[in-house]
Amino acid sequence: MLPTLRSLLNRPLAENFDARTQFRLALQSGLYVFLLAGLLNGAYRGGERLVAVVWLSLGCVATVSLANIVLPRLLPVAYDEDRWTVGRHSLHTLVVLLLITSSNELILKVLGLARPSFGKMYLIVTSIGLFPIMLGVFIAEQRRLKRHLAQAQVLNQQLDRQPTSPNDQPNPLPGTMLPQPIVQLMSENGRERLSLSPNQLRYVESVDNYVQVHWLDDGTAQTTVLRSTLKGIESALGQHPQFFRCHRAFVVNLLTVVHANGNARGYQLTLDGVEETIPVSRSFLSAFDGRLKAQSRFPIRP
Q1: Structural domain boundaries of the chain?
Q2: How much is the CA Rg of the chain, to the nearest whole Å?
Q3: How open is the CA angle 71-74-78, to the nearest 5 degrees?
Q4: How many angstroms separate the first and last alpha carbons of the chain?
C-alpha cells in the first residue's frame, strides 16, 4: 500500500506556471465560484447575497493568482516545473484551498455576514473546489500529451528518412584526409581535460557540482566525469551548433537523435549508441524545434 502511494505521489506531472496561463485559470475559477455559489445561495435575485458572491468570486481570482503566479516566482526551487510531481501538486492544491478559505472568511467578516467556522469553511471550499481543480489538471495534461505525441510522430517520420548516425559520411578520396574538428572539455580548475570529435559526443548531464560527459569510443559507450557546470560545458560547445540545451540538466547532440517519444512534459529522445533516453522539457520545446530547423536536417512543423 505505502509503496504504491509513494509511487503515485512521485509520479511526474506536467505543469505550466506561465503568468498568462495561470491568470486565465484564475478567471475561470472565479467564474465557477460565481455561478455555483450564486446558484446555491439564490444570489441572482439581487441584494446582499449577490454582492457577497461577487466579492467571493473576486477573492477567488486574487488568491488563485497569488498561489499560481506569485508563489512559483518567490519559491522557484519548490516550484521547478521539471521536478513537479503528483505529490507536490496535491500539496499545492491544499495551499490554494487554504488561501481561498482565508479570503472567504475575511470577505464575509468585512461585509458583516454570517460565516461558518474556519474548519467548516475549509471543508466546504475543498468539497466544491477539489474536483474541478484536479479535473482541470487532468484535461490539461491530456491535451499536452496529445500535442506532444503528434509532434513526436512528425519528427520520427522525418528521422526515418535521415542517416541513423552522424558518422554516416562519405569516405574521403584515396590519399586525402578530411580535417576533423576537436572539442576540448575541461574541469573548472583546468586539471581534467577531455578531447574528442563532436561526432563522438552524445550528451552531457549535470549531476550536483559535476557533469557527466557521455561519448562513444569505437562504438563503445564511455562516461567521463568533470567538475564543471553545464553552463560552462555549453559555452565550450558554442562553436558547434549541433549541441543544444534541451533541459536544465542536459545538453544533447542533435545529430545523434534517432527517435523521439512524446509525453505530457515534452519529448524523450533516443540517441544513436545510447541506452538512456534524454528529456526535452516543456520550457525548451520551442527553442528545440527552432534549432532543429536551423540544422536543416528536417522540418518539425509546417
Answers
A1: 2-156, 174-295
A2: 26
A3: 75
A4: 48
